[in-house]
Amino acid sequence: MDHDHRTSLLRRHPGWRLLRASNAAFVVSVLHRVFVVEKARTVGEPTLIEAVDDALYHQREINPEAMPRSAREAASRWVVGFEVILGAYSPLSMTAMTAMTAVSPLS
Questions:
Q1: pTM for the whole thing?
Q2: What's the pLDDT at 81?
């Protein structure tokens, strides 16, 4: 794998884009809970929004001004930002699992 290929992956691969996001720690914590703790294989929009809403609630208990978006707005930005579509076959699950595999050894 050459440098150009790695650079391209950093810019285009959904898992790497997720890890480079400014709110990556928050996103990864939500995805970890949904995909690892709860062992979901795919996630529909209502489930994702509920998980984001729960995480936002806890985050705002610590810092009331953190994350000004609603759970629906945040989840929608993740989905659009990573160019995935929620549905019966959810590429979000593959993206999340790729990201979780990458960060698991770091914890």
A1: 0.64
A2: 54
**Residues 25-38: b if buried by 16+ CB within 10 A, e if exposed:** ebbbebbbebbeee
Give just the sign of the alpha carbon dihedral 65, 32, 87, 84.
Answer: positive
105 DSSP assignment:
G
Nearest to 75 by CA among 40, 99, 47, 103: 47
User: How do the domains of the chain map onto residue ranges?
Assistant: 3-106
- Contact status, residue 85 vs residue 91, Cβ threshold 8 Å: yes
Query: Tokens 């019966």, residue?
Result: 88
Between the CA of residue 13 and those of 26, 68, 77, 84, 94, what are the distances in Å? 19, 27, 16, 12, 11
Whole-number CA gyration radius for the chain:
14
